[in-house]
Amino acid sequence: MESQIGSLFDILLERTEQLIVNDSVGFADVIFKPNGNDYPLLKCLGIGGNSKMSYLMGNDFTSLEWLGLGRMMMLESLVPRDVTTNPFKKLKVIQIGTCEQLRNIFSFFIFEGLSNLQKIEVNYCNTMDEIVSVEIEDQNAIFESPLTTLHLEGLQKLTSFCTKPFIQQSPQTMIPFFDQRVSFPKLKYLSITRGDNLEMLWHNNGLIGSSFSQLVAIIIKGCNRLRCILPSNIVTALVCLDTLDIVGCELLERVFEIENPIFCDKKVVPLTFLRLRSLPNLKYVWSKDVNDVLAFPNLKNVDVTDCPKLRSIFPASFTKYFEQIESLTVDEQNEIFPVDEASELGQVVLFRSLRTFTMSCKLAMKESFWRISKFLQLESLTLIGSEDDKMITLPLKMTEVLYQRCANLKNLELRNLPKLMQVWNNINQMTTIKFFNLVDLEVYDCDGMINLFNLKNLVNLNSIKIFCCKGMTSIVAVEGEGEEEKSEIIIFIKLTEVYLRNLPTLASFYSGKCRLKFPLLKMLDIEECNEMETFSNGIDDKVSVLPAPDPKPFFTHKVSCPENLSIMGGNNLEMLWHNNAPITSSFYKLQSIIIRDCNKLRCMFPSNIVTSFVFLNTLCIFSCELLERIFDIEKLSSGDTEVVPLPLARIILKGLPNLKYVWSNDVGEVLAFPNIKEVDVTVCPKLSSIFPASFTKYIEQIERLIVNVQNEIFVVDEATMLGKVVLFQSLRILTMTCKQGWS
């Protein structure tokens, strides 16, 4: 039987160009046997999951261009050591992953015959200590590789690309990953991650010819024994280097080592992106002032964070290159440049092109930094503090610079400033400084803040995100609001989204007397704001004659609703809408409503409000313990009200232990639901039936229905008495669960 299968595959493979074998039963052992056939047309071969093969057997892959091997636990080599011909002459790409016994990929004999090889990718081969093995007879050979991409990850024993055979070295000798045996004149992308055994990347004697002259990107992550990235004899070869990304290398002390430069003329390094992160022992990016040695005229993106031993990123002489930087990120522990030294020299630091700036609280407190720095294009500013920061208000010099010199500022983000009480020094400053172009405002973990901004100085905001501010009671301040402003209307003309999350003392968005309008608001997301009772307390002269409701509604008629509303964890919320006010168009834009864990709510939609939702498509309610009814229509009558179509397509009700009815009365002559397609009602033990008998005519279009068997879909006995035939014409999914539980 095995021979028949092998013969059949031999015939098929003679004509096959692509073969992928997920080999859990040993097919590959049958196909690739010793002294097997040639596969003249096969260009793409992938084998995964084989647990027996030690190597690809004696086959000639004359046309093979792509080879992928994964989870081949017994694979020791691609071909036997005694192979005398190269079976992979046209190979362009090889990708290998999780081959636990594989110590290397090629012999030097095979490797030097791969004149088309462009990419090597190897992941998590735990015993691999080299890429190419060199025999004693090959130790003096030098090969120029056409490789353009080298990606290595999780090779914990890897020490070098090629090893020298039979050479005794002292334990103190560091083995370079790239020696002088192979040159890489076409290599563009080098990525090494989790190379825990790597101590040195380059040979001390420099490079061969034009090796690495095309290198564009170097990415090194989690190589915990490396101490230097680019020694002085390497830097001059990197004439195309664009990206340098170094992350999580524990012992790394220096990036550019230029203590003993071997060149006299200043060399241009075309670096545009530099990222250094989580390098606990990094002492300097440059071992000395590079002004007379190296030039970096193209640098645009710099990100240096979590490097506690690094005092400053750039020397003072580097400030002339700041003009072209577009994005800059530094944290609490690092200065961008020696500010005091630059200030003493009378330098003006021009950030001509800087658009995105993430800075530390420590740097922001330095008045000298703001005095000598100029920002012409700044659009986004993020200020990050720490638990020890004592900043109570943004420094006056900083706010003046932002206001006077940063007319393009659109995004402001404040993070982890525990003592910060207000963004501006005082209410006069808050009132007079208006960031008219500010679009996005984000605040995280600022526990000392009570409110955020004045009502009138940020009316052009597009997005507001406030997370985890324990002391905040309202978002908008009300100081200085006079009695005459009671009925004033403030329009947030561009606001499209508001996210308020984990604000345990927040009582309202705005507690003043003005009326707020949000004509473009699409998303209002409120989560874990347990003290929030109402969105706004402003007085509307159109409804001020009505008695004050008890309990207080979350939305009054002074606030227009968004398109999407999400409230989670509103444990102090008892009523969403004003149940005494007349029906208005305040809520007509609402398209989706999601309510979760609002344990004091008893009714979702009172009778006066239900017909306002002319665009409502989705209604989802979860885990509201006291909720008894969804649509309360007791006060509506068919005699004076036309049938109102609601476009509701999706309704999900889950975990509502006290829900008694979805509709308080038969809605047949009051409301219509022509678009209903998905209904999911589970864990509502007190709900006897979901729909009234008159609703059966809308069941035709339902496509997905999930219910507990304890709940009737409709009142079956009543429908039977009326002689109704219930046609589930479009139903594709029906789930009826027995247990009163959900996840």
Explain what this protein looks like in three dimensions:
This protein has 743 residues and is mainly β. Among the domains are: 439-601; 644-743, no CATH class. It has ten helices and 52 strands. The two termini are 50 Å apart. The relative contact order is 0.03.
How are the elements arranged and paired?
Blueprint: H1 2-13, E1 18-22, H2 27-31, E2 44-48, E3 66-70, E4 93-97, E5 106-107, H3 108-111, E6 119-123, E7 130-133, E8 143-144, E9 149-153, E10 160-162, E11 176-178, E12 182-183, E13 189-193, E14 200-202, E15 217-221, E16 228-230, H4 232-235, E17 243-247, E18 254-256, E19 267-268, E20 273-277, E21 284-286, E22 294-295, E23 301-305, E24 327-330, H5 339-344, E25 349-351, E26 356-360, H6 361-364, H7 367-372, E27 373-375, E28 380-384, H8 396-405, E29 411-415, H9 427-432, E30 440-444, E31 453-454, E32 463-467, E33 474-477, E34 489-491, E35 497-501, E36 508-510, E37 515-517, E38 523-527, E39 564-568, E40 592-596, E41 603-605, E42 618-622, E43 629-631, E44 644-645, E45 650-654, E46 661-663, E47 671-672, E48 678-682, E49 689-691, E50 704-708, E51 712-714, H10 716-721, E52 733-737
Parallel strand pairs: 1-2, 2-3, 3-4, 4-6, 5-7, 6-9, 7-10, 8-12, 9-13, 11-14, 13-15, 15-17, 16-18, 17-20, 18-21, 19-22, 20-23, 23-24, 24-26, 25-27, 26-28, 28-29, 29-30, 30-32, 31-33, 32-35, 33-36, 34-37, 35-38, 38-39, 39-40, 40-42, 41-43, 42-45, 43-46, 44-47, 45-48, 48-50, 49-51, 50-52
